[in-house]
Design goal:
CATH class of the largest domain in chain B: Alpha Beta
Strand content of chain A: under 5%
CATH architecture of chain A: Orthogonal Bundle
Distance between the termini of chain B: 41 Å
CATH architecture of the largest domain in chain B: 3-Layer(aba) Sandwich
Shape of chain B: globular
Number of helices of chain B: 17
Helix content of chain A: over 70%
CATH superfamily of chain A: MetI-like
CATH class of chain A: Mainly Alpha
CATH topology of the largest domain in chain B: D-Maltodextrin-Binding Protein, domain 2
Number of domains of chain B: 2
CATH superfamily of the largest domain in chain B: Periplasmic binding protein-like II
Largest sheet of chain A: none
Largest interface: A-B, 54 and 51 residues
Number of strands of chain B: 19
Radius of gyration of chain B: 23 Å
Structural class of chain B: alpha+beta
Radius of gyration of chain A: 24 Å
Number of strands of chain A: 0
CATH topology of chain A: MetI-like fold
Structural class of chain A: mainly alpha
Helix content of chain B: 25-40%
Oligomer: heterodimer
Strand content of chain B: 15-25%
Strand order of the largest sheet of chain B: 8-9-10-1-11
Shape of chain A: globular
């Protein structure tokens, strides 16, 4: 019951959140002292040509009118057309989404698979050499700048050891596009060498993204486990003779994961909105790289489209995290 | 007369190219570009970063090749000009095929010009001040006529940018009178050397040799070319070293060029380009409207220190606005030297009160930011305070085009859009380009008289004299601080041969290149 109420209340806030976000982004993007129409018109354009283009693009209208017209478009699923490419922004983002999703899923998978067990082990061996070493690694993982890490990984694994590709989602163009997910498309095509290439290209950017994410997960899992492990129910379970491994991996972990799941949700939201730096360094043709290009070109509409997407992702991910909480901890569903 | 000359040039060009119909595949060439290919429409984009899609997929009436750049006949074989300089008639090459097998005719050229004028984007501003919509005529199947509003000596230099599209095909894909913009942004409808094979705006493009190209092919040229957007400099450099790419952009930071020089699998091709680095000064705002103040600025820049120490001698001193390697710049032009005593003497002649000067440096362009810091340091020594505001190029360029928002100074480059002195001294200091490209808001009636006269006469010697005089006056007025002319350091795999650099297009035309 509580779960349903939660979903409904979150959904009720969905639209107002996006409206507020749009108003802020629209205002901020129009405060920036640059004129996209002038840039689009080209260096040789005369004042008359610039004004004609301004009228054509609707940039001559008052800002509230432009904002209202933007809302109207967004309501119909139309994020507008890029002033540079004249292509639909929604279509372009849709086209780039699989690249970002593939990278995000890979990074989350790696960070969860390594982060949670290491966090548990670290808590169980508190203040041991293993715990101290892991602390150094996790603090480094959080402190190291991601672009630096990316370049170092490129240098080591691509240049020195030559065991991983340097950049891109694939060398040039990948398998024929069916879903846009290259792993899936390679499997559909039955092209296993292509699948190998796709996975090898995914490795370095996914590891670069996964390292700080895994570090966060390790720290939160460790803290959660330490918090729960001294609870009376654990003592009771031990007294009942339940095997220690079962207590830890089933009962303790379930109770300890609540804050970790929140963190995973936040990381997931950040990655889904495009890992801007990593996508740029590795030339990963996803939403992050699209955002960078749009910002460099002062392409307002594309920037707004991307920001709306980011906002929507955070709202959805938060909702999923809340639902997950009720599943992990049934008490919160009462 | 001009027509005969061009006909001769056509014969020479074809003979020197040694083109034949023989076709032998020679692999795929991969280029890592520093900007994305988000639009393939040749009439929508017009910048150096995306030159590769325009020059490899499309053909213009004439073509710029080599360095110093020279125009060779391309889709057009020759041209004549009416005595009043207003009617330009081009004779087209017969039998030129579009990629879909249909023949290119004068109707396609007419449609191309109308499309450019209507779209008002990319290269359009080169033509819109000169040609009215509806005035371009197809005289017969292979003859096209442009009617200019006023005589223009630079029109010929710009016909390379009339990149002809397949009118029938584009018309078929027009939507709501958009001149096929949406369709042509991701498709190609041309006669060019390469046909579009794959395109992804997020990745780049692959082009396959167009076997029926009118110029034919030699035995060794690339079967496929792939241009990928690789925005991160370090990744482009590492990729070239590793062999993932066969070439990348020729204006890398000097430390990266030096790094590449040490790699056995990489060659660095050097050419003096035509890309002048200078400070645009706001000539119409106190105290910069005082020639003595501007001269003080010109004496306060450490040219040798910047060129030899900061840039490690990788560029050559250019004392005026026109590149040294182009006609129109006086051979004995001395320009200014770094001399703080002279700067102080000039400053003493400035009677109006001084104020802090703002330099708008290009964020992310180290040379722009470093030169601003160098000048700031020197000016402080003579009592002029300088504030540096670093902003991205879109912000800077937007502000430069408004007189009240233009910074006091902006250190930047002027690239080659067409190889004529008007591209530099004319556009940077002519009144007709005020606020468009003349962001210095400079006006000197004597300079303007010469620049206007040079635009209207077709006598080369006369034009040369006029541009040299105008250049001397601009330098004497210290209308800008002219620093250097860029050298192009083309980083290519050692396996690649035949790169034919031209400042127009920055050596990205691949039809001449091959694997050794």
């Amino acid at each position: 019951m509580r779960r349903l109420e939660l979903i409904l209340s979150r959904l009720a806030w969905f639209i107002p959140t996006l409206v507020g976000l749009t108003v802020i982004i629209f205002t901020v993007s129009h405060i920036i002292p640059t004129d996209p129409v002038r840039i689009l018109a080209g260096e040789n354009a005369t004042a008359e040509q610039i004004e004609a283009l301004r009228v054509e693009l609707g940039y001559d209208k008052p800002l509230p009118v432009q904002l209202l017209s933007y809302f109207r478009d967004v309501a119909t699923g139309n994020l507008g057309v890029s002033i540079y490419t004249k292509r639909s922004i929604a279509e372009t983002m849709w086209h780039r989404l699989p690249a970002t999703l593939e990278l995000t899923f890979a990074a989350i998978f790696l960070s969860v698979v390594f982060g949670i067990p290491l966090g548990v082990l670290s808590a169980l061996r508190r203040n041991s050499l293993f715990d101290h070493c892991l602390r150094v690694v996790t603090v480094s993982g959080l402190a190291v700048a991601s672009f630096w890490l990316a370049m170092e990984l490129q240098f080591l694994f691509s240049m020195k050891l030559a065991i991983a590709p340097l950049n891109g989602r694939i060398a040039g163009f990948g398998p024929d596009e069916v879903t846009g997910f290259m792993i899936v498309d390679s499997l559909i095509a039955g092209d296993l060498p292509m699948l190998g290439l796709v996975l090898s290209h995914l490795a370095l950017p996914a590891v670069t993204l996964a390292l700080p994410a895994a570090a966060t997960i390790v720290r939160f899992t460790r803290a959660g486990v330490l918090d729960v492990i001294n609870s009376s129910f654990v003592l009771y379970a031990r007294a009942m003779g339940i095997p220690w491994s079962l207590i830890v991996w089933k009962y303790v972990l379930r109770n300890a994961l609540i804050s970790t799941v929140t963190q995973i949700g936040l990381i997931f939201g950040v990655l889904l909105s495009g890992a801007v730096v990593i996508e740029t360094v590795f030339d990963w043709p996803g939403l992050g790289a699209y955002a960078v290009n749009s910002i460099l070109q002062s392409d307002y509409k594309s920037i707004m489209g991307f920001t709306l997407w980011t906002g929507a992702m955070f709202v959805i991910v938060n909702l999923l995290v809340d639902i997950l909480h009720t599943l992990i901890d049934p008490r919160s569903n009462r | 007369m001009i027509g005969n000359t061009m006909r001769m040039a056509a014969l020479v060009a074809v003979a020197t190219l040694g083109l034949s119909a023989a076709v032998h595949a020679q692999g795929k060439f991969v280029f890592a570009n520093n900007s994305g290919y988000d639009n393939l429409d040749p009439h929508a984009v017009f910048d150096v970063g995306r030159a590769a899609s325009r020059i490899n997929f499309y053909d213009g009436l004439y073509r710029w090749v080599d360095n110093p750049p020279k125009q060779i006949p391309w889709l057009a074989l020759s041209h004549t000009v009416s005595p009043d300089g207003l009617v330009w008639t081009f004779k087209l090459r017969e039998g030129v095929k579009f990629h879909d097998g249909t023949e290119m005719t004068s109707e396609d050229v007419v449609y191309t010009m109308e499309r450019m004028l209507a779209m008002n984007r990319g290269p359009s501003p080169l033509f819109s001040p000169l040609i009215l919509p509806g005035t371009t005529k197809a005289v017969d199947k292979y003859t096209v006529q442009f009617h200019l509003k006023e005589p223009s000596a630079v029109f010929l230099s710009t016909v390379t940018e009339i990149q002809v599209v397949n009118a029938k095909l584009v018309k078929k894909n027009e939507k709501n009178g958009d001149w096929g913009q949406e369709w042509l942004s991701k498709n190609v409808a041309s006669t060019g050397s390469y046909m579009l094979r794959r395109y992804d705006p997020a990745v780049g493009f692959v082009g396959a040799r167009f076997k029926d190209h009118f110029a034919g092919w030699g035995p060794k040229y690339f079967e496929e070319i792939e241009f990928r957007a690789v925005l991160e400099t370090n990744t482009r450099v590492l990729g070239l070293i590793k062999g993932d790419f066969h070439g990348t952009d020729g204006y890398l930071p000097q430390d990266q060029v030096e790094r590449l020089r040490k790699e056995p699998g990489v060659q660095i091709l050097e050419e003096e380009s035509m890309r002048v680095f200078y400070f645009a000064l706001h000539n119409n705002r106190p105290p910069l409207n005082n020639v003595h103040f501007r001269r003080a600025l010109s004496y306060a820049f450490d040219y040798d220190g910047f060129i030899n120490d900061v840039l490690k001698g990788a560029v050559s001193r250019n004392a005026g606005p026109v590149p040294n390697n182009l006609w129109g710049t006086p051979k004995d032009l001395k320009g200014y030297t770094f001399d703080l005593e002279k700067a102080k003497a000039e400053l003493a002649l400035v009677k109006e009160p001084l104020r802090p000067i703002v330099i708008g440096a290009l964020a992310g362009f180290s040379e722009s930011e470093q030169s601003a810091a160098l000048l700031q340091n020197a000016l402080r020594k003579i009592g002029v305070e300088v504030k540096i505001e670093s902003s991205p190029w879109p912000v800077i360029s937007s502000n430069m085009q408004k007189e009240d928002k233009m910074y006091d100074m902006v250190p930047l480059w002027k690239s080659t859009y067409y190889a004529d002195p008007n591209n530099w001294v004319g556009e940077l200091y002519g009144k007709r380009y005020w606020a468009i490209r003349n962001s210095s808001y400079y006006f000197n009636p004597e300079v303007d008289k010469r620049l206007e006269a040079a635009l209207k006469t077709s006598d080369h010697e006369e034009r040369k004299k006029l541009y040299e005089e105008a250049t001397r006056m601009v330098v004497d007025d210290a209308a800008g601080i002219f620093v250097y002319n860029t050298k192009w350091y083309g980083p290519y795999s050692a396996k690649v041969g035949g790169i034919r650099f031209s400042p127009v297009g920055s050596g990205q035309e691949m039809r001449w290149a091959y694997f050794k």
